[in-house]
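User: Design a sequence. Structure:
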């Protein structure tokens, strides 16, 4: 731990504070001596640019779920359109026609893209200068239960994978983790609705180092040939390479957050992704598993260090309804999104007596705010009901880059169990 030295002294009546500065010159807070009624005390106050609270995280999750269930991320929708234009087999094109039409109906009628509305995965990335105040996931389960109930989404979580397969009845618990990154001020919340069928088609393999890159290619192709058709292709494939047995699956899952139209920043990773994608599409599994040119829209790779005797590999399939969002919590100093005007929910028109186009009861409009990348480039502003523009409460994109570093090792993440019937 860096040593702290004193720098500067300020005094305000009975409060005297000394700045706390690290050896590299960065100020991290103040040490204050306080005199109250003749009694003395000392307080350490750390400087934090952003404070993330449990209500802010819960509000963001609550707002995102109905939108994710009913509207494809822009990069996935564009990828399906491009695949349809390139498809030259009748069956492959027919499947892509239906997927594109299904996405349109879901978006316009505000009904789920898929009947399997998944388990909820929430990952918070925080960098230096950001404080996660207490258990920031404490209210996430309540938010999930409320969102799934109000939007009338299928509940797909059982109480225990082996000992009690009874449905929890509210799609909880959510599966959450915190991921530190070396990016000052970073405060990004990643949310994914992950279906059972695509996870069932995934795997973790501990290769020997001698298997090398070709071993990775062979294992991915084997996985796609054996299980890819059950994961509702065209796929988005997350590939984690390195770390340890328990961490490599998290690498693969986090890799799915990078948009299919956003190449890797590392040219070596980009070349590997292109090679893997070509190998997957060469299988001919095709859209819907019925044959065609496009078995996968993209392969996304995340790498990490590992033991000299190991080559951990995880393959996490993402289906054609790849539902994920990244919310930048730095906007407005970490203020809660609870005061945002209601936006479009995910509930059939007419339910609860609502008219065509009315939002689901209580649906927050956080996902109707300014759509940007996590790095701040301007995007479009979605329209709120009645033609009004909602107040922005955090940058939201329906396809997010989880980290500027891209290949950092994630924390342990509990994986969601299979859905009944092998649905996505």
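Assistant: Done.
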């Amino acid at each position: 731990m860096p040593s702290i030295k004193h720098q500067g002294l300020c005094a305000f009546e009975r409060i005297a504070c000394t700045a706390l500065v690290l050896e590299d010159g960065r100020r991290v807070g103040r040490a204050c001596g306080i005199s109250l009624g003749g009694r003395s005390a000392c307080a350490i106050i750390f400087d934090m640019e952003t404070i993330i609270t449990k209500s802010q995280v819960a509000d963001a999750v609550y707002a995102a779920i109905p939108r994710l269930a009913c509207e494809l991320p822009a990069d996935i929708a564009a990828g399906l359109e491009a695949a349809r234009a390139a498809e030259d087999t009748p069956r492959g094109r027919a499947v892509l026609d239906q997927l594109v039409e299904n996405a349109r109906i879901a978006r316009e009628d505000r009904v789920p893209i898929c009947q399997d509305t998944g388990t909820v995965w929430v990952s918070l990335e925080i960098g230096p200068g950001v404080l996660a105040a207490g258990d920031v996931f404490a209210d996430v389960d309540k938010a999930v239960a409320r969102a799934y109930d109000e939007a009338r989404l299928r509940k797909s979580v059982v109480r225990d994978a082996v000992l009690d397969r009874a449905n929890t009845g509210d799609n909880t618990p959510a599966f959450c983790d915190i991921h530190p990154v070396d990016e000052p001020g970073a405060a990004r919340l990643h949310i994914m609705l992950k279906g059972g069928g695509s996870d069932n088609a995934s795997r973790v393999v501990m290769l020997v180092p001698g298997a090398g890159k070709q071993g990775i290619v062979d294992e991915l192709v084997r996985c796609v040939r054996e299980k890819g058709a059950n994961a509702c292709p065209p796929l988005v494939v997350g590939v984690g390479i390195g770390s340890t047995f328990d961490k490599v699956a998290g690498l693969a899952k986090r890799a799915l957050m990078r948009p299919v139209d956003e190449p890797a920043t590392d040219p070596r990773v980009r070349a590997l992704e292109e090679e893997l994608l070509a190998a997957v599409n060469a299988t001919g599994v095709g859209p819907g598993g019925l044959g065609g040119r496009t078995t996968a829209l993209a392969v996304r790779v995340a790498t990490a260090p590992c033991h000299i005797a190991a080559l951990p590999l995880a393959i996490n399939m993402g289906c054609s309804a790849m539902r994920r969002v990244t919310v930048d919590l730095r906007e407005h100093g970490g203020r809660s999104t609870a005061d945002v005007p209601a936006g479009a929910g995910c509930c059939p028109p007419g339910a609860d007596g609502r008219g065509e186009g009315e939002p689901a009861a209580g649906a927050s409009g956080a996902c109707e705010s300014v759509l940007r990348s996590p790095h701040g480039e301007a995007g479009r502003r979605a329209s709120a009901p009645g033609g009004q523009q909602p107040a922005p409460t955090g940058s939201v994109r329906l396809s997010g880059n989880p980290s500027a570093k891209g290949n950092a090792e994630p924390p342990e993440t509990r994986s969601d169990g299979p859905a009944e019937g092998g649905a996505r």
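The first helix runs from residue 54 to 70. The helical segments are 54-70, 74-86, 90-109, 140-150, 196-200, 212-227, 248-255, 267-281.
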